[in-house]
Amino acid sequence: MTAALELKGLTTRFQTRTGHVTAVNDVSFAVQKGRILGLVGESGSGKSVTGFSILGLIAPPGEVCAGEVLVDGVDLRQLREEEMRKMRGRKVAMVFQDPMMTLNPVLRVGDQMAMAVRVHRAMSKPAAFEEARKALDAVGIPAAAERLRAYPHQLSGGMRQRVAIAMALLHSPSVIIADEATTALDVSIQGQILAEVRKLCDQTGTAIVWITHDLAVVSSLADDICVMYAGRIVERGTAQQVIDYPRHPYTRGLLDSIPARHAPGTPLPQIPGSTPQLSRLPTGCPFRPRCPKASDICATPPPTHAIDGQTVLCHHPLERS
């Protein structure tokens, strides 16, 4: 069965004054229809650049220099810009972290959504408004017809994020990329939106890549998880496998830093150091300076191990505990 989204060796680099910096390094994964992939890692790990690379939104001095981006079997990297514009929104859509940066503040919500509908489908304005109302209904917005007449600033943060998700769903795309889509929301609203996203994914069969730094979020949302570090996928498996039996020391460190996994008042374990500069990566494994399992062999490039359905890029994969 053809995956809704498949990346093969995706590589994105940026030209700097000191030379090329590789922000996404040979990234490969697949997302089947109706499944959610959590793409997890610290800030600077390459998650968002991966999302922008999928949609062809990398601007100079950046470039996607290698790999394939297959959506329903079609390689987006082989399309001309005009063809790619037709694919965005219709086949692959994106939900950004801050909807106030993507919604036009001087246009009513309904006008923006109707415009997005009519870009890809020939229909009357009333029909486009009806499509927009149905989309708002689908994401749990009450009194959707009234919300269409509102300006973005008249809506709460949770409502604006629901509008952004509804806009991504307007054309029933095969793939949605959600980049930290609930990070700025309070926990209760975040939980509601995650539940709506899970329901919509199950109902529509849309494949979702949920980009986040928060493993606690994807543990309840995602079917599969890819953990990124310094532009590479360092661990991949089902959500249950990665959460219950992490194989990479970096994944273990991320999980140990989740407050809910510790008794109140207990000091949280920390991963020492910080994410390395991509222009100054250490030799061998980029996690080596921060890793409690590091040894001399870690100065050489780490191998990929396949263990019980998980893959891990590490010289010292962890055993089940």
UniProtKB/TrEMBL annotation:
Compartments where located: Cell inner membrane
An example GO biological process term is:
peptide transport
Topology in the lipid bilayer: Peripheral membrane protein
List UniProt keywords, sorted A-Z. Answer: ATP-binding, Cell membrane, Membrane, Nucleotide-binding, Transport
| Single annotated GO MF | ATP binding
Where are the annotated coiled coils located? none
The residue ranges of the ABC transporter domain are 5-255
GO terms under cellular component: plasma membrane
**Top-level lineage group:** Bacteria
InterPro entries attached here?
A: AAA+_ATPase, ABC_Ni/Peptide_Import, ABC_transporter-like_ATP-bd, ABC_transporter-like_CS, Oligopep_ABC_C, P-loop_NTPase
* Gene3D superfamilies (alphabetical): P-loop containing nucleotide triphosphate hydrolases
* Family indicated by similarity: Belongs to the ABC transporter superfamily.
Name the chain's protein. Peptide/nickel transport system ATP-binding protein
> What is the species listed in this Swiss-Prot or TrEMBL entry?
Pseudorhodobacter antarcticus
Phylogenetic classification of the source organism: Bacteria, Pseudomonadati, Pseudomonadota, Alphaproteobacteria, Rhodobacterales
